[in-house]
Amino acid sequence: MDIKQLEIFVCLARTLNFSKAAEELYISQPSVSAQISSMEKSLGAQLFVRNTKGVSLTKTGLNVLVYAQKILSLRDQAIHSVNGGQNTDGTIDIISSSIPAQHVLPEIIASFQNHWPKIVFHVEQADSHRVEQEMSSFRYDFGLMGTLPDDHRFTYYPVYDDELVLVIPKNVEQKNKSIQENFADFIRQTPFIMREPGSGTRKEIENLLSKIGVGLRDLRIPAYFSDAHSILLAISRGMGVSLISKIAATMYVEAGLLKAVEMNDPLFRRQIYLLCNKELWLSPMQHAFVDYTRQFYRSAAYRRQESE
Asked: Are the C-beta atoms of residues 243 and 260 closer than 8 Å to each other?
């Protein structure tokens, strides 16, 4: 078993697809299959289940994955130490919930690549529930989500200070102050568009509403949507109102398609978190990304304070 086999194994464990792994590694699919078979033979254990439903890691494969990633991380640290961090390249795999994937990560990655242009990012979007599930399977280097994870196996860092705003159709004549002062009554009386189960935003909304004595049964919900943009479009057509991340609503508000009411209450603020798995060792470039993202967050928070 050699380093090249470990790289192939880790790539296949992430993609769970022989063709995709071969494409990413610039080798043939038979080569991927042969290397995995050779690795399984040398270990005397099955690492993947292959059937008509696809490819999945066995329990042994999951255990080996943790060690494989640690070995590759040590390899990267050795190279980093020898070359002083020059010409660093590689890939970073991230799974993110929709709001940070669409509105936070692009800015962070673009800024990061000004300093580390050879690092390529693979970003997948999912709801917060799946982000946590996938991070538990060690298939991704990092996860981003707008709610704290339930699993204690993660280290998490705040990377964005977000705010939920009440988004309403532009023809609503009620004054913002009146809505703020009578928020609970307003959302009970007005159709409220909700995110789908598994969404971090929905989890935060449910927690927030419970603190002001409003349950989901108190709401008139005409529709559930899987993403913020669909909800914003529905509101612009007059379907109802909703609580949405301020960063997601900004473009619609500036275009005059709807209005956003800021509640000016700490209950409506939340953090977006960067997740790392405690069982994995971070490579030098992964450490660099964590440090850069946390510093980017502090700088962005300072810029927002200056503008307020």
From this structure: no
